[in-house]
Amino acid sequence: MSSGKNNTPKQIKMSTKEADALRQRIKDSPLSKEDLDVMLGLISFNTWIQDRLSRAKLTIKKLRKLFGFKSESSKNTNKGDDSNQDENTPPDNNKLSNVPPNNNQEPKEKTSKTPKWDPNKNHGRTAAGEYTGCPIIEVDFTNSVLKSGFCSLCNESGAEAKLEHPAPVVLVILEGSPLVSGYRVQLKRAKCTVCETYFTADPPDKFKNRSKYCHTAVSALAINHYGAGQPFKRLEGLQKAQGVPLPDATQYDLMDTFYVTSAKPVVTALKVCASNGTSNYYDDTPGRILEQTINNKNATSPKNKKSVHATAILSEYEGHRIYLFQTDTLTAGKTFAELLKTRKSSAEFLTMTDASASNFPDLEESLMSKWVISLCLAHGRRKFHDLIDQNSAGDEECRLILKIIGDVYCNERHCKSGNLSDEDRLAYHQKHSAPLMQALYTWLNNLLLHKEVEPNSPFGEAIAYLLKRWDFLTKFLYILGAALDNNICEIAIKVLIRYRNNSRFYKTFYGASVGDAIMSLLHTAMAANINPFDYFNALQVYNEAVNAAPEQWLPWNYQDTLLQLTEASDPENTS
Description:
The protein is α/β, with parallel strands linked by helices.
């Protein structure tokens, strides 16, 4: 196979008359019936697909279906001899030469157990304790005897029996309302018939000194727009239909005010914490900003044109996971390099990315010496999965490679389900996963060394990708806390993809910074098991304190700050 990058075949376009003439010439040629059917079928297929593409009737999804391609979730990658193996059973590496046997795992005995039905546990309903966002209403007994702590039934017979109080019965009642609702407070007016003076009733204390748009409305909008991906125009239509109009321009103005007064300083503090994190995951996806699109159209040189990148960065800092999103013209690697400019920690830091060259920016020497690079094993695995069922050489070998890597992921699943510490997880992988990966490395090297695989074939290129980056792909075998893949960031970046698919684009770079900041706060709060609605409310109510000391209003410590403010304002706690 040619090793050139551009193997695109020459395009052949035919009109209907040309196709009919070609069919007739083929029919007149001395071909067998089988060859004649194949040639006529190819011509018909070419004209059909040319027609569908010209009328924009053919999508990538339909094209993949037409050629029989399936996604990984819809196909069984363990067909053939390995289809009857349990996923926790080590592969039979003796099937192929040059692969040492693996006996580090013992197959688990399968035992069939009939589940016992318990109507108190297996009802499938959500526990009442999970509804932490609903206020609690305490309801006492109405019977005077029960309120006094004695049994009402025993009291009727003249005896006194004290009561004990088990856990209360909880009734959960859920109500619905428009996303943003409110009140229309009508203040009665009067006018003197003599002096013509107007008198207006005083508003109730509940509504005094309150703006039209309360902080709770702003929080709800922020969560539904930047969290759920609901476009402003869609929310405007829903609000209008429910009798509470809320124009899209007003919604953006509210988000802008929230960003300037509350979100921006806290996100700046979050970035400082993230820059000093020990483990970092980052990736990017194409973004859309109309301002940059206009700049590209007005550019006088192709060098002045820039693409927009939507970047997600996850940083683990002192036991907390920080989510940072940024949409601009910087790639994920350059965005991460900008983040590290505020790093003060002298400890090593670990990064997890894919192998794209844009993910490895130039850093200062002091940072380069502390940078531990790990690459995503899932990306290397995917290259072998894509070769299955394509009638290419190495199909059986690809299945075995997937099985070996799958056993490594079984070991990782065991570590997660057992809540193993980083030290125990590393020891487990070194005992159970290291022999698997070493056997795979030896075998793949031997395939290329003994020329059993064509290096320029798809299978050979997939092997070369894995071997070239082997040390970075196997950091989890000897670095404490190193991950196997970048899947956690791949999941996080779907937040940006969902927003891009729903709202289509940002208008300006400033609008993108507003959205990125609110998304960062929202998902960092959710990762810390903090109610984002309550968190956003607190940032707005105490925005002056937030701007004075934003590092005290991070999602994981803002509740302690609130408690301190409450105690300081309570006169009974002052000495």
